[in-house]
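Running this now, will post back.
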Amino acid sequence: MVLAVPASALGAFTAPAGTGTTYSTAVLADPAALTATIGTCRQNQLVEVVLDWIPTGSGFADGYEVRRSVDGSPEQTIGLVTNASVTRFVDTTSSWQATHTYRVVATAGWWRSAGSVTATVTTPRHNCRFTGGPGG
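Update: finished.
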């Protein structure tokens, strides 16, 4: 038998006596306003991409997971921020002359939010010149 109950009716509840388990229907809010900008570019060295965002509104969040896709590849986790008040991450592993799409996910223990909107940046060539623009 399956029992369907609207989420609004659940709130937080405790399992039957003796199990010691509490369940919650709280929602882990996404971080907002993600931006990605090219950081320091040093010729023939790695280029940095600086990510900034507005923190999650969920007071129980404990950090963020930073995910990246390169040139349309599947998204992969590239870093963890273990303090929910920190809203900046610097990607020092980006590829030259590639399109990087980022997403930031709020964390709370094993919970993950759905994820922020994405931010995309195209890194320059190894000589720090951008393609398709002045000097490119």
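The chain has a mean pLDDT of 80. More later if anyone needs it.
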